[in-house]
C-alpha cells in the first residue's frame, strides 16, 4: 500500500515486535501451537519422508529436492547451534573475514551508492534498495531457541544505513504449490539471499567499513524493503515488487557505509488489493483477511499498532504443519505473480494502476492455476 509512516502507525498502540512471538519460534515453545504435526514438520526438513504413496508433489523425490534447496541456509543456521545461535533466523551472521584497517576514501556518496548496487547484483542480488536505520522495525527482544530465552536486542547505533536485498524465487516451482516440490523455491531463495548478503557485506568490510548481514533475524524485513523502495505491501502480508511480484525472499545489511537513500514507491498495489481478494479466497485455512487494512491484532504473532492487512499466522502455520511443507498458494495465485519480461504482463502491471484494473481482475482468473508437480519433473 502507499507508504506513509505517520498514517500507518497508531502511536498509542504501537509496540516493537518481540522475536519470540514469530510463529516459527512460537511453534517451539507455545503449547497452543506446538504438537506432533509441528514436530514432524521440522523433522521432515532434516530427513525427507521416504513414502512414495503420499500425494503427488509430496513424495520422496519432492522432499529430497526441497531439502537440497534449503541446504546452504540450513548449514549456516546450524553451524553455531552449540552456542545458542541460529544464524539468519534468530541471529545475524558471524562468518565475515576481517577487512582493512584503513577506510576506503569516498569521494562521492552518489557514485558509491550506484557502485554498491552494481556490485551487489554482480554478487547475486536481484534487487537492491537502501534506506535509513529505523528503530521501529528492530525486534524489541532477541530469542534463543536452544534455551527458550529472550534477551535485549541491541545493534550498533553507528550502523545508520540498511541495504535491502531481494532475490526472486523460481516461478515454475512456485506454480506447483501446494507441494513439497514448490518448497524448493523457498529454500533456494533463502540460500541465494544468504550468498548475496554475505558477499556484499564482505565487500563493504573489505573497504574498511562495518556490515552486518541479516535475514529473518534482528528486524522486520518487509517494512525496511518498502522504505528502501523495493515494493509495496499486499493483502497477503507480503512485499509486492514490480519485477517479480510477491515471489521474493528478503535480506538486509546494516552498515556505516555512507550511502544515499531510496524512496518508497507506489505502482497501484494498494488499489488493486483493495478490490482483489484472490489470495484470501484461495487460502485453504482462511488465514488472509477479506477486510480493509486496520490496526486490529489477530494474535501475538502480529505487530501492534500498524494499520495494514494482517495474516492469521496461527491458521497459516497449522496448514503448513498439516502438509509438512510450506504453502505458497497466496504467492502462486497473486495477480502480480507474472513473468514481467513478457510485454503483455508489462502492459498489465501498468493497467493495474488505473481504473481499468477491474477488467484485469476478471481476466486474471485464467492465470495462477496449479501446475502438476509431475509435469515439472517431466519437463
What descriptive keywords fit this protein?
4-stranded antiparallel β-sheet, 16 helices, 36% helix, 379 residues, alpha+beta, two-stranded antiparallel ribbon
Task: Calculate Rg over CA atoms.
Answer: 20 Å
What's the domain count?
1
Total of DSSP H or I helical runs spanning 4+ residues: 16
What is the residue-mean pLDDT, rounded to a whole number? 94
Q: Bin the strand percentage.
A: 5-15%
Helix-and-strand structural type:
alpha+beta
Give me the count of strands. Answer: 8
What global shape is seen?
globular
Can you walk me through this structure?
By secondary structure, the protein is α+β, with helices and mostly antiparallel strands. It has one domain (5-378). The chain is 36% helix and 10% strand. The strands form 3 sheets. Strands 1-4-8-5 form a 4-stranded antiparallel β-sheet, with helices on both faces. The protein has a two-stranded antiparallel ribbon with strand order 2-3. A two-stranded antiparallel ribbon has the order 6-7. The model has no long low-confidence stretch (mean pLDDT 94).
Short description:
The protein has 16 helices and eight strands. It has 379 residues and is of the alpha+beta class.
